[in-house]
């Protein structure tokens, strides 16, 4: 099947990509997407949702990393693009193998539109 120039343009426009990133407040990363959505990501929540094989069992999909395993004071140290489809984060706990696809990041958005009812954050005993 051969696509017209208009159809190819429409497909390209539908691809979600970050347009800008900034700190919204302490510990909350903001990503503005190319469709205009302004997403919010508490960094501890992002770390808890790491999709790598060390944090999620590859066969069963069961989460190995438990919320309490992530220190309360986790910091995002670096962000690197992975092609045009994902971001890779480096965390202050030394973890850096998670590749967060753009689709996953959109699902993880914690803004009031995407997540009108916020989950109750479990109390962690780990400070660092």
Give an overview in words.
This protein has 128 residues and is α+β, with helices and mostly antiparallel strands. It has a single domain, classed as NE0471 N-terminal domain-like, CATH 3.30.2020.30. It contains 3 helices and 6 strands. The chain has a 3-stranded antiparallel beta sheet. A hairpin with a 4-residue loop joins strand 2 and strand 3. The longest helix is centred in the first third of the chain and has 10 residues. It is globular.
Strand and helix layout:
Layout: H1 5-14, E1 18-25, E2 28-33, E3 38-42, H2 43-48, E4 76-82, E5 86-91, E6 99-101, H3 102-108
Antiparallel strand pairs: 1-2, 2-3, 4-5, 5-6
For this structure, what is the CATH class? Alpha Beta
CATH fold title: NE0471 N-terminal domain-like
What is the domain tally?
1
Q: Give the N-terminus to C-terminus distance in angstroms.
A: 54 Å
Strand order of the largest sheet: 1-2-3
Percent in strands: 25-35%
**Overall helicity:** 10-25%
Uncertain stretches of 5 or more adjacent residues: 7-13
Q: What's the main sheet like?
A: 3 strands, antiparallel
Order of helices and strands: HEEEHEEEH
What class do helices, strands and sheet pairing give? alpha+beta
Number of continuous helical runs:
3
The gyration radius over C-alpha positions equals: 16 Å
